[in-house]
Design brief:
The protein is mainly α. It contains four helices and no strands.
């Protein structure tokens, strides 16, 4: 279970990194280079939600969920083979 969750976590992490790197920066357009493009507002103009934005949100939520699941699984006490033994074997009596 933990191994599959770690593999899923790594895959989600790689996709999250790739989706973030593909996105265009906030001021990367031509108007942003010359100081225009929503400079009258505090945080710039609010654009429409793109597919990359939705993918980023989805992969971020999956990343957080797998991170929390791995943390919970690592916090559980583990069982041991030695705990299942009820008594140590006794040596045979000498005559």
């Amino acid at each position: 279970m933990t191994v599959l969750l770690v593999i899923l976590h790594v895959i989600v992490s790689i996709f999250l990194i790739l989706v973030v790197l593909v996105q265009q920066g906030k001021g990367a357009d031509l108007a942003g280079a010359f100081g225009g493009g929503g400079s009258q507002t505090a945080f710039g103009a609010r654009g429409a939600t793109t597919l990359l934005h939705k993918l980023t949100t989805t992969f971020f939520v999956l990343f957080v969920m797998t991170s929390m699941a791995l943390a919970v699984l690592q916090g559980r006490p583990r069982s041991s083979v030695m705990n299942s033994r009820t008594a140590a074997p006794t040596a045979p009596a000498k005559k």
